[in-house]
Amino acid sequence: MKRVVLYFLGGVALCIGVFLWDSQGAVPAGAVGTAGYVALTFDDGPWPGTTRVLLDGLKEREAKATFFVIGKQIATRPELIQRMVQEGHQIGLHTWDHVALRGLGAGEVSRQLEKSRAALVELVGEQDFMLRPPYGFVDETVKQCAGGPIICWSVDTEDWRDEDVARIVKAAVEDVRDGDIILMHDIFRSSVDAALECVDELQRRGFALVTVEELFTLRGREPAAGEVYRKVPPGE
Ligand code: NI
Q1: Residue 36 C-alpha to ligand 1 middle, in angstroms?
Q2: Which residue from 18, 37, 155, 170 has the fewest beta carbons nearer than 10 Å?
């Protein structure tokens, strides 16, 4: 009889364990941010060499990121887009031709976004794609046509400027705060090296690297279409 009770208690403990593990939900395993949560974002990809190295490094570190990809490059590297999704990263729009959307008519803005959206849906299925407008340029037409939240940034590493790894890492982590969105580009090898160093340093300080979507989920916030967000700090 006692043995039956033990089996029963063991079963209950197992169920609770599985439930707790499963209820981690949107936040990847091992990614509890004791100091907070930060979203690394990469624009202008995917690129054959650099993006693959970046994905390898992120996987090794159990870090998630958000990739705002250029539409016309999607078809050249479909396997990288699929891999991003499989490994828990988020994909967003960055226009088809990398054009500054501000000042354009609604027809052209929609064409830039719909063409990219259709290419992504074909590869990874229907999803809500957030928009990172090139150069962060936004106007009323862009807001009306975005079809999802508009994600800018609170930390600009200017990684394209000098490709100086040490400076980029410093720019990214120096004043970083819970809920920050960091802008980088997976075009350059220097950016990839800097990004992975940033992940190591941020994790060492107790930050977890999550996607922009996860950042909103963690705050219990629902981002609104056409609204511009630069960060998602706690308690707002
Ligand atoms: Ni860009």
Answers
A1: 27
A2: 18
Residue of 89, 94, 159, 185 marked active site: 185
- Give the max Cα distance, the chain: 77
Give percent helix, percent strand, percent coil of the chain, each to the nearest 5: 45, 15, 40
- Residue 150 belongs to what H/E stretch? strand 150-151
List b or e across 188-212, with b for residues whose CB sees 16 or more CB atoms inside 10 angstroms.
Answer: bebbbbbbbbbbeebbeeebbbbbb
CA neighbor of 42 nearest in space, from 116, 97, 94? 94
Q: Which uninterrupted H or E stretch holds 201?
A: helix 189-204
Q: Distance between CA atoms of 36 and 96, rounded to whole angstroms?
A: 34
Q: Which amino acid is at 203?
A: Q
pLDDT tens-digit map of 45-85 = 999 899 999 999 999 999 999 999 999 999 999 999 999 99
pTM of the model: 0.87
Q: What is the pLDDT of residues 128-155, one digit of tens each?
A: 999 999 999 999 999 999 999 999 999 9
Q: Which of 43, 44, 159, 186 is catalytic?
A: 43
Q: Is 162 a catalytic residue?
A: no
- Kindly give the residue spans of alpha helices, DSSP state H, lying in 32-164: 48-61, 71-74, 78-86, 106-124, 140-145, 159-162
The CA 17 to ligand 1 mean position distance, Å, reads: 43
